[in-house]
Amino acid sequence: MEEPLQFKLEGFEGPLDLLLHLIAKHKLDIQNIEITILLTQYLDYIGQMKRANMEIAASFLAMAARLVYIKTASLLPKYEEESEQLKRELSGQLIEYQLLKEVVQKMQQRYQDGIYVRLPMEIKADQTYSLTHDSTLLAAAYLAAAGRGKRRLPPPRAAFSGIVSRRIVPVESRILYVLDRLYREDFIPYETFFESGDRSERVATFLAMLELIKTGRICVSDDNKTVYFAPGQPPQEKEAQIYDD
After folding, report:
1. For residues 111, 113, 118 and 120, what is the CA-based torsion angle, rounded to 10 degrees?
2. Which domain, by its residues, includes 83?
3. At which of 84, 113, 142 does a domain end?
4. Cystine design at 174: which of 9, 170, 204, 239 (Cβ 3.0–4.6 Å)?
5. Which candidate, 33, 26, 97, 105, places its Cα nearest to that of 70?
6. Helices in the chain by DSSP H: which ranges?
């Protein structure tokens, strides 16, 4: 069975296209359609096509029935709310169809001009930190940051307690100590001078020996193991030399 011939209506792709034409022609508000005027114009156009013996597509007749139903519902108070809802749905379809037509026209224009890409769009950068790290690395970074913060603080008072509380040993007293021991023993092992006493005494003894070596009163063997009087100081002068100092 052969399909019946269909003719494209004069410049219109479908019923929505015809409705947009009528709305623009009669300057109707697409947001608030006056169904009475639109229905009258739409049926008049359908009648003209019938009189011209043109075959009318089913979609055009279905739209005519839809407009009649909306008009009928608007006349009955009981269905007034439904009528308004149907008008809003029709208005939304017409607005959407109008936007689609505008897009098609722009695409056709770009195709004719040889432009096949869309206009550049601004891409917003994602500010979300999405990397993952090992927990040990995060802990080490935290401790390092905390350590830098502590280094900026002044040292606590307890850090100076060991220095302030130590007694001061005069170097002069350790000079007499070294000379007295050498008077009693001519040759004394170097390490024995540091076997007793606290740190302050040992430091003062070391400075005393440096002073005595510098002034030429005592000597240290080449192997740094023995301390003795320097040559040129007779034994009988040792005691006097000690107390003269």
Report:
1. 180
2. 15-113
3. 113
4. 204
5. 33
6. 15-25, 35-51, 58-75, 80-113, 135-151, 161-164, 171-184, 199-214, 238-244
Q: Hey, how many other C-beta atoms are within 10 angstroms of the C-beta on 18?
A: 20
- 3-class state of residue 86 by DSSP: helix
The total of structural domains in the chain comes to 2
Tell me the pLDDT of the chain averaged across its residues.
78
Q: What is the pLDDT of residues 125-182, one digit of tens each?
A: 888 878 787 888 888 888 887 776 666 666 666 666 655 556 778 888 888 888 888 8
Rounded to whole angstroms, the Cα distance separating 69 from 58 reads: 17
pLDDT at residue 113, as a whole number? 62
pLDDT attached to residue 163: 59
Instruction: Examine the domain organization and report whether 19 and 109 are in the same domain.
Output: yes
CA distance 83 to 78: 10
| pTM of the predicted model as reported, rounded to 2 decimal places | 0.39
With beta carbons less than 8 A apart as the criterion, state whether 143 and 150 touch: no
